[in-house]
Amino acid sequence: MGNKVKSIGLIGLGMVAGVAVSLQFSAIAQKVTGSPLPLEELRQLSDVFGLIKTDYVENVDDKKLLTEAISGMVSSLDPHSVYLDKKAFREMRETVAGKFVGIGVEVGMEDGYIKVVSPIEDSPAFKAGVKTGDLITRIDGTPIKGMSLDESVKKMRGEPHSKVTVTISRKDEDKPIVLTISREEIRVQSVKAKIIEPGYAWLRISQFQEPTVEDMAKKITALYAQDPHIKGLVLDLRNDPGGVVPGAIGVSAAFLPKDAVIVSTNGQLLDSKQTFYGRSEFYASRPKNDPLAKLPAALKDVPMVVLVNAGSASASEIVAGALQDYKRATIMGTQTFGKGSVQTLRQLTADTAVKLTTARYYTPHNRSIQARGIVPDLMVDETADGDGLNSLRVREADLQKHLNNDKDPDGDGAAKKALNAQREELEDGQGTASLAKKAKPVEFGSKEDFQLAQAINHFKGLPVKLSKVEATPAAGGEVGEIKSDSKTDKTDVKPAVKPTAKPESKPKASEKKPALKQPVTQ
């Protein structure tokens, strides 16, 4: 890989310089790619570079031009391939590792301000007195109303031990609270868990990171220590945007038969044509120290509900798809995002990289969810009154240049048409702005969590209130075709049943572990 990157770098220099040794670089490119270098197009690029340097209204830095050229080339491929400069690459590594430098708050948006969902325990924000429900209105004196959540979060991050001043509006206080907080390295807990009521547990994964499998194992062990007779487990993957693939494999393996196929991938490279099994070598950072080895045996049979929504993407769809294919869990909620592609980080320099789409992934039954998503077994809206803004969120099928569903290429248009029809029905003539004013963020795992309440009802055999809106048809019509009755709000469903799936046959000796241990999805 290093030689390949080096060759491509040399090719780039030759292209820009437009020197006479282009044939030599063409030979290098042919060796790397198997095809001749398109010299005419590269000459045009060199000409444009020269025109900008000589004719543009002001001087432009060479590095900026070349960086933007690389960025444009990569981003033109699909919505998830991207060039990562020094800052973006650092942030990506922090996200994957489950740590970052900041003040330590979980946040969301409300009325244009940052709402503190929860301060992370023992973080600088926690020690400074930031509380759940606080609204952050200014960062370093700058009003944040109108900023995106990402922009606001970036303002709160920075270098270790640097300081940031936040202005807080609190319901019980007449005057704004101004706090100056020192940034520190924060380790994000991607797994939460608790006993909802005797016999019923809730396990939430907010993102798949390197520590996720170990953190999940600890949380599950603690749940069974608190209540050894759990009768139903809710795995909450709502708004989980994905993360590292090994995390998804490990979470799936915890609930499936030993050595079961979890996911397979297919792309141009040999390393992208892989099948991933529920074995420690595929999910553990140290394969000889399997974090799932000491989990309670009852976990393999406990009835399960998996909660998903339009914000459940990529790695979370791998988990939902695997558990659905094996009929190990009832998938409940709304149709997922539909990102069925794998991105791999290819490091270019010590500080830069390309995040490149290298494969599509498939569920154990060989379903592709690309641009389609996972269709729940039971369609349940976010609230009793409907799905609110969740149904209006952008999904994979809405993104320009998205990959098609190779199992059903003609279905992409139908999927997008169905999504648009759902949105029109849910707006009901009120418009998006009107819905936005009425919608309130749901605190997952709380007493007001409607979908969680329906999951508990499902375990108990009580009526479950289903959505009035039909889901987009599943690819191939194999799984997930249960739709709600538009004439009724309730349906009686049977309690969750124990799994009947048998382990897949063990792989042959030639089916070795993939060379790329850390493919990354987002």
Task: Walk me through the structure.
This protein is α+β, with helices and mostly antiparallel strands and 522 residues long. The protein has 3 domains: 2-94, no CATH class; 99-187, Roll (Pdz3 Domain); 191-491, 2-enoyl-CoA Hydratase, Chain A, domain 1 (Alpha-Beta Complex). Helices cover 30% and strands 20% of the residues. The chain is built from 14 helices and 21 strands. The protein has helices at residues 2-17, 22-33, 39-55, 62-75, 86-97, 124-128, 149-156, 212-226, 245-253, 280-283, 315-325, 411-427, 432-438, 450-460, and strands at 82-84, 99-102, 105-110, 113-119, 135-139, 142-143, 163-169, 177-182, 184-187, 191-197, 200-205, 232-236, 261-266, 274-277, 304-308, 330-333, 341-347, 353-362, 378-379, 464-465, 490-491. The strands form 5 sheets. Strands 3, 4, 5, 6, 7 and 8 form a 6-stranded antiparallel β-sheet that branches. The protein has a 6-stranded mixed β-sheet with strand order 10-11-12-15-16-19, with helices on both faces. Strand 13 and strand 14 (274-277) form a beta hairpin. The longest helix is centred in the first third of the chain and has 17 residues, at 39-55. The protein is globular, with a radius of gyration of 25 Å. The chain starts with a helix and ends in a 31-residue tail after the last strand. Mean pLDDT is 81; it is low at 1-31 and 475-522.
